[in-house]
Structures are given as C-alpha cells and as structure tokens.
Amino acid sequence: MLRDLLENKKCFKLVCGAGNEDAQEVEKLVTIYSLAGCNFFDLCAKPEIVEEKKRGLERAGIKQDRYLCVSVGIDGDPHITKALIDQNKCVKCGKCKLVCPHDAIIELDKYKVKKQRCIGCGQCVKNCPKNAIEMISQLQDYKEVLPKIISKGIDCIEFHAISTDEKDVMEKWAQINEYFDGMLCISLDRSELGDKNLKDRVWKMLECRKPFTTIIQADGIAMSGSNDEYGTTLQAVATAQLFQNANMPAYIMMSGGTNTKSIELAHKCGVFPHCLAVGSFARKIVKDYLLADDLYTNPQKMDEAVKIAKSLVDVIVGD
Fold first, then answer.
1. CATH code of 125's domain
2. Is it the case that residue 319 has pLDDT exceeding 60?
3. How many CB atoms lie within 10 A of CB 33?
4. Do 189 and 296 belong to one domain?
5. What is the CATH number of the domain that holds 146?
6. 66 & 86 share domain
7. Which of 32, 174, 297, 316 sits most deeply, having the most CB atoms within 10 A of its CB?
8. Are residue 266 and residue 125 in the same domain, yes or no?
9. Whole domain around residue 95: which residue ranges?
10. What's phi and psi for 17, nearest 5 deg?
11. pLDDT given at position 263
C-alpha cells in the first residue's frame, strides 16, 4: 500500500506535470518509469490523462503496487497556468521557443503556445524581450472535476495551496476533503508565505485530517530541476526541514528542483523525507526517448530509456 511505501521511505513519485496534458507523453513516461521501479505517479486532473497512465502500466505489464495522484491548484499557483503570447507584441525573435523545456511553443505563421504541453514554468515570460507573454490561470471547478477523476480510481489528490488568499485555500481544501476520503497531499513552498505563516497554514489544514493520512509536499522552487546540482535542490531540503522540525502528524515529500543530489543533501542536513518527487529532471533525462515514434516497437530504445530512468529511481528507493 502507498502508506507502507511512505512509512518505509521507499517512495519515488514521478511528476508528469500538473499542467501536462500531452496524453502520448504521459503514457510513455509512465511506461518507462514504471519499468524502472517508480511506484507513485502525479498527473494533471483530467480523466483522459488518468487513462493514459493506466495504458502505460498495461504496456509495462504492471498490475499492482503502483499508485496514482492527481494535482489540483488554485488561482496564482504556477502549476495550473498556461503561457499566452500577445501576437501584437511578439517580434518572432524565437527566444521563448529556445528556452521552453517542454517544447510547448510552436512556430506557424506566428509563435503560439501548444497548451496541452505547457506546464506553467514561466521560462518564456522571463526571457521575452518585449514582454509579449503572460501566464494565465486555468481555474478548475472542483465540483465538476473531482467526481470524474475519483471515479477513475485514484490513490491521492494533491492540492497546490500556493496562495496568499487564506479563505480561498481553506474553502478549496474543504471541498477536496468532502469529495475524497483517501490520502491527500498539500503542496506548498516559501515563495508567498513566511515560515511561521506557512506552518500555521498547514497545522490549520491538518485539523480536519486523521494523523498520517496527509502528505506535505515541501516544494523548493517549482519546475526548476533541470540541472543535477546540489544548489538546485537546496530550497526543497530547507522547506522539508521546516516541516520536519515542526513534528507534524503527516508524511513529508520533497519536490521542486529535486534531482539525484536531493536525498544525499537532505541526509547531510538531518532531513529524512518519506518520499521524493521528481519532475523536470526526471522528464529531461529521458526526453529523447519521449520524442521517439518507435519507442514501443524498438526494444533497444525502451531498454535504454528504462536504464536511464532506473539510475534515478535507484538513488531514491534502492536496487
């Protein structure tokens, strides 16, 4: 069971991307990483993406001991934003396309964003010299979304509560608790709230939960794990340490800039998370194989992809 993996600190979560609506890529990611030993998968909250995850497991021939989490967000959360290019300001310099880590920007007559591939990282916005790009929240109606997703069979719902609007956070949290009685995850970073307010919020959210039925996802810097360096994962370790020292009755998961150095650095700092979630880095190291049209029909390519993925998984869960 998922709880056993968390208790034994043998839990690796692949973040396919809360905004990743590319069904074919999700199926490939799940196939590769499930064969590599990944046991927990995080997806966007769309029924068709949940189905692709199941197809990925079927391709891998895995029928049990794999768990599914879907992510929902709130206004202001970068995970549910999509880039939008103002065609009147765009000068077609191509810098946005060059820096996009998810190949979400396409060139037709003008540069446009392929929304199903945009994960909300904001790199295009930071690098646009004409301020022609903005990030738009893709708000979700939980009353409509959650019943459809839950009916597909899921093990966890992750709530991205990155917002200063305390009332909105608590109202959305109450809705999630009303619809789902399984494991819940609270995803938070230090970008909006100070340490005290951050801890106060989580304590308040845990009041309606039984002990250890909740995961606290301690985010460093969201969608920043493209480099395999200690500095990239430093903030994730610091955020996890904040929650660990608070002795909360919840499991702690590190995310946001995580890579192969995360667990090593965490242990050196006296931090012992129950789970590590890896997104950007995990997707990056198998990117070439995700683009291969013959991945499923070429055993050599699949074996190579799985070997690369396994090198990451084994750092977390062991051989």
1. 3.30.70.20
2. no
3. 30
4. yes
5. 3.20.20.70
6. no
7. 32
8. no
9. 78-137
10. 120, 120
11. 95
Q: Tell me the CA distances in angstroms from 289 to 15, 99, 118, one per residue in order.
A: 17, 20, 19
pLDDT at 152 exceeding the cut of 60: yes
Residues 184 and 110 in one domain: no
pLDDT digits (tens, 9 = 90+) for 67-96: 999 999 887 677 778 899 999 999 999 999
Q: What is the number of other CB atoms lying within 10 angstroms of the CB of residue 82?
A: 20
Mark whether 188 and 280 lie in a shared domain: yes
Cα–Cα distance measured from residue 76 to residue 72, given in angstroms and rounded to the nearest whole number: 12
Place of tokens 């990451």: 312
d(CA 279, CA 205): 25
Between 28-32, 61-65, 128-132, 171-175, the lowest mean confidence (pLDDT) is in 61-65
**What pLDDT, on the 0 to 100 scale, is given for residue 45?**
85
The answer to whether the beta carbons of residues 114 and 104 sit under 8 Å apart is: yes
pLDDT in tens, 248-287: 999 999 999 999 999 999 999 999 999 999 999 999 999 9
